[in-house]
Write a structure and sequence with these properties.
Elements lengths: L2 E5 L16 H10 L9 E4 L5 H5 L4 H9 L7 E2 L5 E2 L3 H20 L5 E4 L21 H13 L4 E5 L6 H7 L5 E8 L18 E6 L5 H19 L3 E6 L16 H19 L3 E5 L5 H16 L2
Parallel strand pairs: 1-2, 1-5, 5-10, 6-7, 6-9, 7-8, 9-10
Antiparallel strand pairs: 3-4
Helix pairs in contact: 1-9, 4-5, 7-8, 8-9
């Protein structure tokens, strides 16, 4: 079976304004990286629209409706200083969540082995009760709850290697013993959460905070020491990845030293546990990454790791 690549042109219409790091060019760099001959074997699909209920599952009906209705008819609207909407942002939000829903469906039904969703806006900073940090709806949490509601998987795990802590996913997963969240991230750094002693109500949260300047060796040691054993012990039925590539040494929003091979390695380690515990069921979603060359190359490395099966 192949790897599914889900994206959509509507994500290019989410305009964050001049100089904003979460720009349309990010997705163009991902598209370019995955258009080469090495990726000819990908199964490619456009995103579907998520339903209101699917988007509200990790949030609330009122919050989702308020977000969607906040999109301006022209110009820009700031939800906070970092989080910007334009006239098509509401459509991009719905298809971003929908991309994850359709990817979960395809993997659960055995149509593909795994999936990567190139979406924007990203999602992992969106908490249960508020959008923030470029994020509106928590796409990866939508996927987790959909895997449970639509396909009956009980234990869902998210691994997040974005350089910024996935505070939104942690917030949503905190009280649920059957949802597992693990994150490696620069610390202290935006958004200020992710200390090692943040463990969730049922010890279902694992944070591996990394000091500024950590290179690939330090990242791999933390993964091997903290994240991989906990993920294996949790024994998930389905594995999701918040795939942010802004811990790359060239990224302007971090002070870390990772390279493309480190993202390939981390993906392969997660895949190994997914094969052992979850029949290989893995869906990943694009989060951060703001140096365009590094983002494209790192995404390519990540998808190549998925393609190895």
């Amino acid at each position: 079976m192949t790897v599914l690549y889900v994206t959509d042109d509507i994500f290019l219409s989410h305009d964050t304004g001049p100089g904003h790091p979460e720009s349309v060019d990010r997705l163009r760099s991902v598209h370019s990286a995955l258009d080469g001959e090495d990726f000819a074997g990908l199964t490619r699909r456009n995103a579907i629209d998520a339903t209101d209920a699917q988007m509200a599952a990790p949030h609330s009906d009122d919050l989702v409706q308020a977000i969607l209705e906040a999109a301006p008819e022209d110009g820009y609207r700031h939800i906070d200083p970092d989080t910007v909407m334009s006239p098509h942002t509401d459509e991009a939000i719905r298809k971003g969540a929908g991309a994850l829903v359709s990817a979960v469906d395809a993997v659960a039904l055995g149509e593909v082995a795994s999936a990567f969703c190139a979406v924007r806006p990203p999602g992992h900073h969106a908490e249960r009760g508020r959008p923030m940090g470029f994020c509106f709806v928590n796409n990866i949490a939508v996927a987790a709850l959909h895997a449970r509601a639509a396909h009956g998987y009980k234990k869902i795990a998210v691994v997040d290697f974005d350089v910024h802590h996935g505070n939104g996913t942690q917030d949503i997963f905190w009280n649920d013993p059957d949802l597992f969240f693990a994150s490696s991230h620069q610390y202290p750094h935006y958004p200020g959460t992710g200390a090692a002693d943040e463990k969730g109500e049922h010890n279902n949260v694992v944070n591996a905070p990394l000091p500024a300047g950590t290179d690939g060796g330090g990242f791999r040691k933390a993964f091997e020491r903290e994240i991989l054993p906990a993920l294996d012990s949790f024994a998930p039925d389905f594995v999701l990845i918040s795939a942010g590539f802004d811990a790359h040494k060239d990224d302007p929003l971090s002070d870390m030293g990772l390279e493309e091979d480190d993202f390939f390695w981390a993906t392969r380690q997660i895949m190994g546990i997914a094969h052992r515990q979850a029949d290989g069921r893995v869906v990943s979603a694009l989060e951060g990454g703001y140096n365009l060359r590094a983002l494209g190359a790192s995404t390519a490395a990540h998808v190549k790791a998925l393609m190895k099966g």
